[in-house]
Amino acid sequence: MTPELIALTLVALEHVVLVMWSQALLNRDVGADVNASPRDEMPPLSTRCNRLRRALANHTENFPFFIGAVVLVMLSDSASTTTAVAALTYAAARALYIPAYAYGWAPWRSVIYMVGLIATIIMYAAAFF
Length: 129
Fold this sequence. Notes:
Blueprint (H helix, E strand, L loop, with lengths): L2 H28 L1 H4 L11 H29 L5 H22 L5 H21 L1
């Protein structure tokens, strides 16, 4: 498996961890009955639960952009040391982003996010040049 596909696999596993962690906190905050409901009316959530729900939303929004970069690199036969390092950098940045968001590491959360975004942009650029 290429480093880019390894990174994609790692990010998918990070997503699963983030879903499980955020759901565990939601379950703790509202109880299993509310968590299993349509959640039309939610009681107040803890700060950490809210942060993890936002981190999950951010991950869900950004994951397709990374998937696209990996697919483009693979299909265009543009894989290189640059794309491998960029993909693994993205995976590492996303792994750090989760606790950075959960524990409120400011301004590091934003710095970590930018590292991942730039790594993804580098992958798109490498496929073109």
